[in-house]
Amino acid sequence: MEHGYDLLAPKFDHTPFRTPDSILRATTDALAELGPFERGLDVCCGTGAGLGVLRALCRRSTGVDFSTGMLAQARAAYPDATWVRADARAMPFAEGFDLAVTFGAMGHFLPAERPALFDGVYRALRPGGLFAFPVGAMPPPTSVAYWGTLGFDLAMRVRNAVWRPPFVMYYRTNQRPAVLADLTMAGFSASTVALPDGGITYQLVLARKPVTPSRSS
């Protein structure tokens, strides 16, 4: 995955895999009502699309990703931000951020990997800090999107069964109930709200770290 994203980095912003600007704007608008935020963290920042959200909400921003190619593109677009190369499942932060976001990255984590990811974000946030990210609703079985995402995931599973190294990217492994349950297990108080212009397609996950943590960080 790391090498693949290094190669894709110069073209990534022109692919359909980049989070649409409409979702980024809707997330910014929703989070603006929950601030203020001093320091923001973009988890799995890629080429930095989420930094535009953090720039509008925070005084200082940091992006973390494991791809040097992606970080190079992000650094060129947002030279005033701080950039850290690290695996999101083992981030080197401790209570340094008021807000953490991630966009388009959840499909790269298998369900068994989510606890490590969420634990790392929990540690990175100050007490009372917020972790936010959009999630798509499962389309109805009668829709083209339903069969499109099913077909994509099945194709990826076949690909990963016969080709090494595997490339983890699935649309249907991070459904809202399971994600909220894992966030709760990590110590967050988690809920979702509809994005202002996301209609019924997207919800914004809001996971708050308690001011008095209920677990050891």
From TrEMBL:
GO molecular function per UniProt: methyltransferase activity
Methyltransferase among keywords: yes
CDD domains: AdoMet_MTases
Residue ranges occupied by any Methyltransferase domain in the UniProt entry: 41-129
GO biological process: methylation
Alphabetically ordered keywords of this record: Methyltransferase, Transferase
Listed name of the protein: Methyltransferase domain-containing protein
